[in-house]
């Protein structure tokens, strides 16, 4: 009896329900909104089941009946007549499990362990020391802001590591993955919190700033700092470039915008140009750099190297280099003829430039079912052509061995280049640190934030772009402070997933005491008398890095005493409790570095002391420790 009055209103109901859904199909809401099918219940309580046959005609107000209405809805799962929907268990997302990595020293807290995802096809790190925690235990959090691009390699590793995502303003996070932290964010950071950028690292990432820092070191130390081609910052440096152009008429030059990436705005040109063209170029903001005339080639193709470098702290200077990286080849055979300067896929090795070339071939890196290492080992190049235009370092090593070139010698020079570059920018980055914390310049890296931020609250992952010439001399092209972590190919996914996981494990995110006290000396059996949740006091009670807050004058006096010891073993006798704490922390980092190799400090790092000015207490301690063996 109720059916006839409803018939005229059914089309209106359909339009009213579908109208907002269709209107929301524009803009950003299209990406975020997902329409969910809703079951239609009938009088007997059974969910309506849509017919699998599509209804292509829209019924009019006069022709609609009750049987036609369900056919226009998406199908929904069938529910039994005697089922109790209210009593059914809801589908829950799988809980995340945190894995702890205990210290090699008794009494020191563990850190979070991040293992590789199965999708990256990389052999898993040894798990003999890892301790999985209870999935129903304490939740740990990270924050990923919109200020930086979101990469799957980062988010998937953090999720698999057991962390849940929260907003940055919640202050519950252990890790903040974002752009450069603001002064307010640094001052609000707790001792146990870490973020993935140093404030002031733009002194390393901007092409004009890094040249100013390196040229300052060149003027002081001469050829020891000839690690990047001669450059001129425009418009101020235009007159000096004009003089150099007139002295070197056959030299090629390359123009780079100060803060662009992915090859945007870059062009190669010769010294042969009109005065009007030179004046117009001199009015623009950017960097003109000398073009390396004798690049090393692979089967006749120009290439550069993407080197991944991780800095745990600038005081002490702790630098790690990743064992793998990317060899990025141009897709057109190289020629130094001036007629070819406009060929971007010949002179530029950027992946963003060459991936659009018809000649580009992607590196599958074992996507056929074999692991990445086996795919590299079984690779066979043609007589004079590469199989693909992006290589791993393993492939480059094999190629150089066949050509009679020493890969290790080249890589040692690259390590030296990275260390010198980081020393050159340490002073301006330290100035930004003290300024952000509203501390005096005399405090330097000893300055502590109002809420406990210390010199190891930040870490950074850099992408060094290096060109190697025919003499195996590396030349620094630029440093990316936000290197791309996209997984555009199986090779990228394997290398970058390992890089992110190893970096996060090395950084040493420390869980609250209430979590790690449940596990004693790597035992996987929790103590029954330990609480299952952490309080804010547990998180905030984590002590800052040893030495943070100690007056700089006191540390300088201790450093001088240790440095005066001629024999490294004799220097160890002057180590105090603070020094041994620094040593234990460094040893723990070495034990969990994975595919990252420590290049500074080292047993032969004394040669870099001359570039540092006044060697800090922490640098002296770790240098003497490694020299003592």
* Average pLDDT rating: 82
- What structural category characterises the helix and strand content? alpha+beta
**For the terminal residues, how far apart are their CA atoms?**
94 Å
Strand content: 5-15%
Q: What form results from the Cα inertia axes?
A: globular
Let me know the largest β-sheet: 8 strands, antiparallel
Low-confidence stretches: 1-88, 369-381, 521-541
Q: Please state the CA-atom Rg, rounded to the nearest Å.
A: 30 Å
- Helical percentage: 25-40%
Question: Count of helices?
Answer: 23
Q: Based on DSSP secondary structure assignment, what is the total number of beta strands?
A: 19
Provide a compact summary of the structure:
With 629 residues, the chain is of the alpha+beta class. It contains 23 helices and 19 strands.
